[in-house]
Design a protein that fits this description.
Two copies of one chain form a homodimer.
Chain A lengths: L7 H7 L12 H12 L16 H16 L3 E4 L5 E5 L8 E7 L12 H17 L7 E6 L12 H7 L4 H4 L10 H7 L4 H5 L8 E9 L4 H4 L4 E7 L1 E10 L3 E2 L11 H12 L3 H4 L4 E10 L5 E2 L2 E10 L2 H22 L2 E9 L3 E2 L2 H13 L6 E4 L4 H5 L5 E6 L15 H17 L2
Parallel strand pairs in A: 3-4, 3-5, 5-15, 6-14
Antiparallel strand pairs in A: 1-2, 2-4, 6-13, 6-15, 7-11, 7-12, 8-10, 9-11
Helix pairs in contact in A: 1-2, 2-4, 4-15, 10-12, 13-15
């Protein structure tokens, strides 16, 4: 998409019928703000490039700070670069409600993941301002740093820093693709390793966190629904499996005398594809990364290394699935006369959303005549980290064709505005 | 293995009982010559590094030239660097018998593939000289250039040049790992593209070619036999298969909505492993090289590219196997909701050895009290290329543990000397 053709505002407004602009929520304002953020780090093919801890991410946060101040919020920033905008509630004895997201992106991402989270959280404040409403609970907008993790192949960095879930020893060893250390990256945006380590916050002052995000899937689209309830946020478990056979000459080794690591790995990939549905409706398992050694066309593979990404929104079913996958690796290796080694390298505890929060979200959707459906989130979000410490809730907005992390990422302004209404209603309904 | 411990001669002689040294064939001379060649391009771990068209390959050829001249042969070299040593037979009207091999190696190869071929061919001449025997047919030793193809990822280069099987247009585009063009590589050893193109020889002056080679497999060892008959030389066919699915988020895409290219490829690899035995006893099929795209742990594979190396000593069964493999690719792709594209990139016609030659080899083995067994050659040899133009024969010598292309490659001197006896008897038996 050529730069002169670029106009996210115009594209958002084009199909907007304005019917959902009431109670102070303003689709035109939202569209203008989406457009303004989209111009920061705009890529040649019309995508977003605002890597975590980059000057583009900082620029987007600075713009959000201006709007938050204009909306009357008390703006602050912590040592990890997380930005907060606070509105005092009527009752100072009550803990605050927090909502937000992030403004960093993958290297050539879209314009909705997740300006949607922070702009929606801000639009709720704008609506309150226009209608003269003051909530009982104080309200905080959070803009978390480096959610995508594109810089250090990590992710959820800002929320982990706030929640005290960072292993600083590991964090200090990180080096980005340009060879910059974590310390250097922090310094370049006016932060430091020390300030980052001090970002951990006492979360007792926050009652709950709610995040609105694009679905990144096509279930809402299939049912023609603008907004849905997230039933839980899957935590990934990464299982590294090595199949170890014996390399040999592809011409001289009879089929019956082979210990071919790829025959075992192939059977494994195909077999575990059938397993998630046997354990849980929301479980998934994927072999996305696989290397063959020595990987020569005329050499029988001596070793195959792969990673199984296993997810569910419930820890018990995810763990059961992991065990069954390990059993299959061992059974198949035995059958093929090879060995299987495995190691679990990453394990993030999943966060099912509790019934009380799903009930409130459901009432909020019904108030806006939207059928409440529940969808598990396979992707991680800042709400996953915060959910380890506080009750959290999430809403999904309809994603066109389920496409995400791509310039083609799209949600209609009609659906977005309905999402903000549901978010606002939900926040107002919290006791 | 430290250089000061290096002594191939001593290792060969250690277990040699000398019982097979008669009729002018001399195990001690053979061991000394194996040792002398092994010192050219000796690697730190006791292997051979004599890449095709390197100064080490040339040095080994030069040493062979000295020995051939000492044995009374008329030595010549063609424009591809192939070296010939010719002994005139009694009857000048008869076409010559040719035997030989190559002295180049893979980058860290062993000491038998294939000094065995050229030293055995020469030992036959030495034996004739000692016993005062002159064959009816003229006899030529051939030392072919760059059989292994380690320099340009090709192979059988010298024999292809002699047989006129080189596509010069393609040959001129080759570049080695150091960035040297084919022309530069030729110049560095005193040859040229032009001389190379002129190496094609009228083969009507040659009646047949015979090559003795290590088995590179463990069938002779399993039967405790020193020498065996090669039933045919498999020509590889390389089938490139791409499975094309749809990349997606490993968390957000339900299992039932995936078009996972690796699930299809995995099923394919496992399935075609079962096929060769259904088509032919000597057929093999191997997926040694496979790449996943984009190969991210949390991304459903959108594409898998792989190569199937399909071999048999008979063209019809190899072609039948290739067709069945293509059918499986299409069937499995259909089942998995992905697409399969295929392309055949390499196809070398296999060479079954004719009955007349196998019969003569069998008689030669029986004369030396060796049970004649037939073994297919899955690997390619110069005899494969020459076999497209002339009747050829091959003998295999027992390989310890079947190991080849490795410093551990080993054949005992007892077995080698018996191989030379069989080779000599066979050559003498040709009308």
């Amino acid at each position: 998409m050529a730069a002169e053709e670029w106009d996210l505002y115009g594209r958002l407004i084009k199909d907007y019928d304005g019917n959902y602009t009431y109670e102070g929520i303003n689709g035109d304002r939202l569209a203008k703000r989406f457009h303004a953020i989209s111009e920061i780090g705009l890529t040649d093919d019309g995508g977003s490039r605002r890597i975590g801890f980059s000057k583009e991410e900082k620029q987007a946060k600075d713009l959000m700070k201006i709007w938050m101040k204009e909306a009357g919020l008390n703006v602050s920033e912590d040592g990890a670069g997380n930005v907060f905008g606070r509105l005092e509630g009527k009752d100072h004895s009550l803990p605050a409600i927090m909502s937000g997201g992030h403004v960093d992106s993958v290297p050539n991402g879209g314009h909705f993941d997740s300006p949607l989270g922070v702009l929606s959280a801000l639009e709720v404040v704008e609506a309150w301002k226009e209608t003269g409403y003051q909530p009982n609970h104080s309200y905080e907008i959070a803009i978390f740093s480096d959610e995508e993790g594109a810089r250090f192949n990590s992710g959820l960095t800002g929320s982990r820093a706030m929640a005290g879930e960072v292993d600083m020893e590991l964090q200090r060893t990180l080096v980005d693709q340009d060879g910059n250390s974590f310390a250097k990256v922090m310094e370049d945006i006016g932060l430091s390793e020390e300030s980052f380590a001090e970002a951990a916050r006492d979360l007792s002052g926050i009652k709950t966190y709610v995040e609105i995000h694009i679905e990144q899937g096509a279930k809402l689209e299939a049912q023609n629904l603008p907004v849905g309830i997230v039933s839980g946020i899957a935590g990934p478990a990464w299982l590294e499996v090595d199949f170890i056979g014996v390399a040999g000459h592809a011409g001289n080794t009879p089929m019956t005398e082979r210990q071919d690591a790829l025959v075992a790995a192939g059977d494994f990939v195909r077999t575990i594809h059938q397993l998630p549905g046997k354990v849980s409706d929301s479980a998934v398992a994927t072999v996305g990364k696989l290397h063959v050694h020595p990987n020569g066309a005329n050499v029988i593979p001596g070793k195959v290394s792969l990673i199984v990404d296993i997810r569910d929104i419930y820890a018990d079913t995810r763990n059961e699935l992991t065990l069954r996958i390990i059993e299959e690796a061992e059974r198949i290796a035995d059958n093929c006369g090879v060995k299987a080694n495995h190691q679990q390298n990453l394990e993030v505890t999943p966060v099912p959303i509790d019934d009380e929060r799903k009930q409130l979200l459901s009432l909020a959707l019904e108030k806006h005549d939207i059928k409440p459906v529940e969808i598990p989130s396979g992707a991680g979000h800042d709400a996953l980290i915060i959910g380890h410490h506080l009750p959290v809730a999430m809403l999904f907005v309809n994603s066109k064709n389920g496409v995400s992390h791509n310039p083609e990422e799209w949600s209609s302004l009609n659906d977005i505005v309905q999402g903000v209404h549901v978010l606002k209603t939900y926040i107002e309904s919290i006791d």
